[in-house]
Amino acid sequence: GSQKEKPSTSRADMEEIPSWREKALEDAISFKDHEPDRAEGMLLEVLVGEQTNFGGEMRKVDEEDERKVRAQEAAVAALLEIYVKMGNVSGIVKLLDLLKLRFFPRVAKAKTAKLVRTLIDAVDRIPGTKDSGVLQGLCEETIEWCKSEKRTFLRQKIEGRLAALHLESKRFLEAMTILDELLREVKRLDDKAHLLEIQLLESKVYRALRNLPKSKAALTSARTTANAIYVPPAFQGEIDMQAGIVAADEKDYKTAYSYFYEAFEGFMSLDDPRAAQNLKYMQLCKIMANSSPGDVISVVSGSVALKYAGPDLEAMQSIAKAYEARSLQDFELVLEKYRSQLGDDPVVETHLSSLYNGLLENNLLRIIEPFSRVEIEHVASLIKLNLSTVESKLSQMILDKKLNGILDQGNGILVVYETRTLPKAYQSTIDTFSKMDLVVDSLFERALSLK
User: Residue 417 has what pLDDT?
Assistant: First the structure.
């Protein structure tokens, strides 16, 4: 009799049959919410296990590499979810060490780079890791590993991330040291997308260092680079936002407003929370340009007002009203009430500090205008500020030549001199003498050449 042929199993049929790893992954995911410790053990087995038990005997399981890698990637993602939820930083660090040893040598470099960045992002999501320096330490360790494995592209990416962390931690010198070397390397490689990220970061660091010319130059370089490549909308929003910040620092509030508006529209289309921040900066530009509170409020109108209404925008509107009333007390009350919304944002804090100083100077000048000699204590009582603050501000104004007078600190008196405007004839005479001096010098040089 003829033997019956065994039905052949096609590749498609094999793919439909879950491997032990895929089954274990499915079980682990079902446990991760209510039994995270058990799920963790199962997921680690999915990640590194090479054997399984069938019929009481241990044997090797033959899996397709592609399916195996997919299951292992899913296991990493599930483990990260558990660790982030539990705030387990050491678990993520151990997982990274395990992947370096058992997983990364067997997968493509692009997949390795993606997973490493995913793990660093996971640590970033755990509160307190930036302040404690854990995230910076992890980046530095990974950079050393990249150097030993000669993974240049990944090292450069993580160095960029480390520079950004240093910027957030106000460690500007360390950030610039990394960025200087990184810029040279990336320019040689002609990686325009990464170059753009570094140039924008460089602009932010220089701005934080109050070096506005270099910040503007780095931003101009970034915009030139951006013109040559496709820039994702979120990153374009970052560029526009930085351009607005630099323009505001130059006191070009009209241009700054237009950049913030572009950034706002870009972020709003992506439902990015930074849209609200740009809306706040738009209101700040209106205030700094001496617009009325009505103009400041009109920035947020209609559906936009409903979507982004909150303490941030209320704070800016309160500042606008206090500034229009020229009231230092109201201004200080608003700063105190909305401390987190106004004081914690370095951009807003810088400009409001300038606004407050201008308001204080104008109020002081108005108070001392009728006097030629006045007690500093009397000025302090009229402006309702403490004596040391008023004395310090008056001395600063005298040094800046905004006030013509002297402080008699022994007697606690401000002596104000009459400001005299010199007749135009004086300046014309000085100009004439200067021109005559040039003519005489020129004639003298010619006389010497004739000899």
Answer: 87
152 close to 188: Cβ distance less than 8 angstroms: no
Q: Which of 304, 297, 346, 299 minimizes the C-alpha distance to 319?
A: 297
C-beta of residue 194 within 8 angstroms of C-beta of residue 157:
yes
Nearest 10 degrees: Cα torsion 147, 148, 150, 153 = -40
Residue 229 is classified by DSSP as S
Give the helix, strand, coil percentages of the chain, each rounded to 5: 75, 5, 20
- pTM for the whole thing? 0.77
pLDDT band for 51, please (50, 70, 90 cuts).
very low
Give Dmax over CA atoms of the chain in angstroms: 133
- The angle that helices 152-168 and 134-149 make with each other, rounded to 10 degrees, is 160
Instruction: State mean pLDDT over 152-173.
Output: 93
Q: What is the DSSP string of 48-86?
A: H--EEEETTEEEE----HHHHHHHHHHHHHHHHHHHHHH
Q: According to the model, what pLDDT value does residue 10 have?
A: 47
Supply the DSSP symbol for 416: E
| Residues 192/228, Cβ–Cβ less than 8 Å | yes
Number of Cβ atoms within 10 Å of the Cβ of 316: 28
* Long-range residue pairs from 189-194, CB within 8 A, at least 24 positions apart, any chain: 191/153, 191/156, 192/225, 192/228, 192/229, 193/229, 194/156, 194/157, 194/160
440 forms beta bridges with: none
Name the phi and psi angles at 57, rounded to 5. Answer: -120, 145
- For residues 241-253, give the mean pLDDT: 95
pLDDT in tens, 15-39: 555 677 788 888 888 877 778 888 8
How far, in Å, CA of 330 to CA of 337, rounded?
10
